[in-house]
Amino acid sequence: MGGRKNQEDAERVLACFREIAEIPRPSYEEEKIADYLEAQGRRLGLGVFRDGHNNVILRQEKKETGCPSVILQAHTDMVWETENTQTAGEKIPHGIHEEGGYIKASGTTLGADNGIGVALILALLNKGGDYPPLEAVFTSNEEETMGGAEALNGEVLSGEWLINLDSEKEGVFTIGAAGGISVLLEFPVMEEKAGKREAVTVAVRGGKGGHSGLEIGERRENAICLLVRFLRSLDEAVWELSALEGGSRSNAIPSEASAVILAENAAFIEKQAALFMEQRCNEWSDEEKELILTVEKNGDVKEGNVYAPSCREELLFLMENLPHGVKSRTEEFICSSVNLASVRESSGQKRMLTIELSLRSSYESWYRDEAERICRLGNRFGAGTVIKDEYPAWSYKKESKLTEVLREAYSERFGREPVLENVHAGVECGIIMKNCPSVKEAVSIGPTITGAHTVNEAVEAASVGKVFRLLDAALTKINQMEPDREEDGNER
Fold first, then answer.
1. Which of 2, 204, 371, 467 could pair with 223 in a Cys bridge, judged by C-beta atoms 3.0 to 4.6 Å apart?
2. Cβ distance 459 to 20 under 8 Å?
3. For 167-212, how does the pLDDT look when each residue is reduced to its tens digit (9 = 90+)?
4. Are 287 and 219 in contact (CB under 8 A)?
5. If you compute the radius of gyration of the chain from its CA atoms, what whole number of angstroms results?
6. What integer pLDDT is reported at residue 148 of this predicted model?
């Protein structure tokens, strides 16, 4: 009976998710999903609020109760990636199907991060259980800047307890999270006329990549760092740098990077690439089984510009000395890390190469100091610097009534204790608690999602049903709670 009930609850949520999946919603393009949520709120007779950032709040009428009011929160945007350039413009998951107990897409990101969170909230609102006063909060642009949460007007909300639905391991409750910041180094490119004639593209492909917080502690190669290592292995007299790029976004470990170089002999570059792989691939072959270094001939170049030798040297020296990876940790969790996230040439009158790094830490003091250190390093080589997109750490409370209610509901429902963790990733809870004075406690939960931010993204169907059942049980418990009272008998 329990298995069938769990399957029914999973399908209740997945039906909502399939509707959401038909709506394009990459970061910065959340208008259509906001329209949809507004319509759902009106259909259910809820109070509807929408701001200029496409944040949407659906609110039940306030009822007289002594229990805490609850905010259920998820973000509406998704990371959009596709392997099929012909359908890239549609920006919706393709071929959603179930395979081995997991819901997947075919050749695109699925959008379970955080479409499943949105669907869980809608499924609960549709069910309409014996719940406390609820505010459903759907924020925009979490994946890029957390700008929706930052713009949220805290005076609009009155909820005391916040349940965020953006975690990715069923049975694991997130009760704290790292803060972070991004640094841009804008490196001016000094050019001269090309002296070599054979153009080749050297590329690192097939890396696992992954989330720059959740998976930064795993053995995953940074494609940009590896490409720079290869370029450094070449005799500087035999090649010239024409272009360099890599990475996709600040919150992803780069899985690909490429450089266009000019040489007198393209076959020599091919030989050096093969030698580089032969000598070094044992460093990553156990974990990065598909990672390769390729050389593709582009043909002869009659004229054009390349990086001046001194400029090329300064750039490579800068990049090989930029930090990447875990910088400090305890026995339980990673404290601080840096992701060398992307390198891109920007268009304009003056040729410029922009390098982005994302920093995360449980300590605001660390990521601010490290950002300044990186800026000083960039300044030494004439790079302009920009520090942006800071978001606060979420410090967990050791004594949390919300955590205790969720823990009890989980234990009673599933016969085991949940795991409590402090996650090394940006979670909107810290921002919302900073902006919304009514919110006193927060917990983040969610179903099991693998491969987030990649075309291999998948969500475990059974875990979706379990999270729905947990929420239903916990909200029912909260609704039955007596109000806290001070020693003099007055309600708090």
1. 204
2. no
3. 999 999 999 999 999 999 999 999 999 998 899 999 999 999 988 9
4. yes
5. 25
6. 95
Residue 114's alpha-carbon distances to 27, 119, 187, 268, 356, in angstroms, are 12, 9, 35, 47, 24
Per residue in 75-132, pLDDT (tens digit) is 999 999 888 776 667 899 999 999 999 999 999 999 999 999 999 999 999 998 899 9
Write down the mean pLDDT value for the chain.
92
Q: How many CA atoms lie within 13 A of 441 on its CB side?
A: 15
- Structure-block tokens of residue 285: 């072959």
Do residues 119 and 126 lie in contact, with contact meaning Cβ atoms separated by under 8 Å? Answer: no
Alpha-carbon torsion 473, 467, 127, 79, what sign? positive
Cβ contact 424:178 at 8 Å: yes
Burial of 61 (0-12, 13-18, 19+ CB in 10 A): exposed
Amino acid at 55: N
CA dist 58 and 40 (Å) reads: 9
Number of residues written out for the chain: 492
Query: Tell me: the pLDDT tens digits for 363-404?
Result: 999 999 999 999 999 999 999 999 998 888 898 777 899 999
